[in-house]
Specification:
29% helix, 19 strands, 9-stranded mixed beta sheet, TIM Barrel
Length: 473
């Protein structure tokens, strides 16, 4: 066989959502060209010996916030730094957010995000639109975005009144139209008005430390909003997706709805599996690094999340990578948790995690017997690709799929330190933690972009990926 600009991955253990076998994989022309035994190639083909390594499809992270303006703040990572961190973590496709402001349309939001991303992204990307206002024109723009812009998912908030919260009728209108057109509405489910009241009462009582972020966002209010969102979707006869599910109070409604045949899908995040609410048992400001929404929950909630991951009541593990520095950082207070030094309600909500998703889940999931290798791939690559219209271009190792490939070493351990990561965030929740497994090489459409500690990618090489209809049911 004569090939050019090609790479042969020799003798690796190929793991997909359904397969587990040793084979050679030929990457050529940006796609997976051939999978077989003892593939013969010419001298112009780069041969990589993957003996002892897993050959995984590139990770698909469908919940990240890069350069996202949230009220008076902006997330620390740029499209450049965030996608470089993603690549080193074995993620080759992200889905970020385009925020519809009060004065523009979903189409304006998409164009604005693409202008910012296109010259910076190091991996492939797509966008969800955050819809904050719904009227007849917005619905027309949403339909246009689905048909002509390749954007088929839209996020809405049941929290943050006056900033991003949508009322139930607006959510219902979106569900009805987007569902009928083959797309997906993703919901942030918390009862925002009740939570705002609890925050107000806590501050009036003089409670200002970060721990009160968790105490004013009880899991009951996540559960109530999840139940309400499910019933709106049922009435609209539409699928629905819940982001960052953290508690059994929310999960139990998802499980019940799925048992009734309602197309409900949901994700959780690594931090809800790695940490619990014991981190809030102090008044130290360092606790601000754990201020994310929803907050961390109880160990019993973790047990229910793991069960749901095993039995497919949760289908995706995404990061909700939403980084803000613990110091002033390179963008000053606008990107710093220090905004809330004297008022927990002013601490920007979010934590980093885009680079450590695969290795942390391999360590706590696969190595501890909670996830099979196939399920690990399914949760971090295949199902997110299916749910959000990227499959089979993304999310699997198959002939004709994009040559987004990760070589993963299961036999080594590494100790995580923020200084060695590639995010612009100045901390990691996993500081000093030893994890088993390491990303060795990463290919984006056949191009080697990560080789151990060495970076071979370049800003702007990532492409916008237009997405199709939901494929998971």
């Amino acid at each position: 066989m004569t090939t050019s600009n090609a790479t042969l991955i020799r003798n690796g253990r190929v793991i997909t959502a359904t397969d587990d076998y040793v084979a050679d994989v030929l990457l050529q022309g940006g796609i997976i060209h051939t999978i077989g035994q003892n593939i013969e190639v010419g001298g112009d083909v780069t041969v990589v010996d993957a003996t002892g390594l897993y050959v995984l499809p590139g990770g698909v992270d469908t919940h990240v916030h890069l350069e996202n303006v949230i009220g008076p703040t902006i997330t620390t990572d740029t499209f450049a730094s965030g996608t470089k961190a993603a690549a080193f973590g074995g993620t080759t496709t992200i889905v970020d957010f385009a925020l519809q402001t009060e004065i523009d349309s979903p189409l304006g939001a998409i164009a604005r995000a693409q202008r910012s991303a296109e010259s910076q992204v190091n991996v492939d990307y797509s966008l969800h639109v955050i819809v904050t206002r719904v009227d007849d024109q917005v619905l027309r723009d949403v339909r246009h975005a689905m048909r002509h812009e390749g954007v088929t998912s839209f996020k809405m908030f049941m929290a943050y009144p006056g900033i991003m919260m949508a009322d139930d009728a607006s959510i219902f209108r979106m569900l009805r139209q987007v569902g009928a057109d083959g797309g997906m509405v993703a919901l942030h489910a918390e009862n925002g008005t009740v939570i705002d009241l609890l925050i107000k009462e806590a501050l009036e009582a003089g409670h200002t430390s970060p721990r009160y972020h968790a105490l004013t966002r009880p899991s009951l209010m996540e559960g109530e909003a999840t139940h309400r969102g499910i019933r709106l979707a049922e009435l609209a006869n539409a699928p629905i997706y819940f982001v960052h599910v953290s508690s059994n109070d929310a999960l139990k409604h998802i499980v019940q709805a799925r048992s009734e045949g309602i197309p409900v899908f949901a994700e959780t995040c690594p931090h809800y599996l790695l940490f619990d609410d014991a981190v809030y048992d102090n008044d130290d400001f360092e606790t601000a690094k754990y201020v994310m929404t929803p907050p961390l929950r109880k160990p019993d909630d973790q047990k229910h999340l793991w069960r749901a991951l095993r039995y497919d009541d949760l289908q995706v593990i995404a990061t909700d990578h939403c980084p803000f520095c613990m110091k002033e950082g390179h963008l000053g207070l606008r990107s710093s948790k220090l905004r809330g030094t004297d008022n927990f309600a002013q601490i920007p909500n979010g934590a980093p995690g885009i680079e450590t998703r695969l290795v942390s889940l391999f360590d706590i999931g696969v190595m501890q017997g909670k996830l099979s290798l196939n399920r690990f791939v399914e949760l971090t690559s295949t199902t997110p690709a299916k749910l959000f219209g990227l499959f089979p271009k993304k999310g699997t190792i198959a002939v004709g799929s994009d040559a987004d490939v990760v070589l993963f070493n299961p036999a080594v351990t590494q100790t995580i330190h923020a200084k060695n990561l590639h995010s612009d965030c100045d901390y990691t929740l996993l500081e000093g933690r030893s994890l088993q497994g390491r990303v060795e090489k990463v290919f984006l459409r056949g191009n080697l972009i990560v080789d151990g500690h060495h970076w071979h990618g370049r800003e702007g090489m990532g492409r916008f990926v237009p997405r199709g209809e939901v494929r998971a049911f």
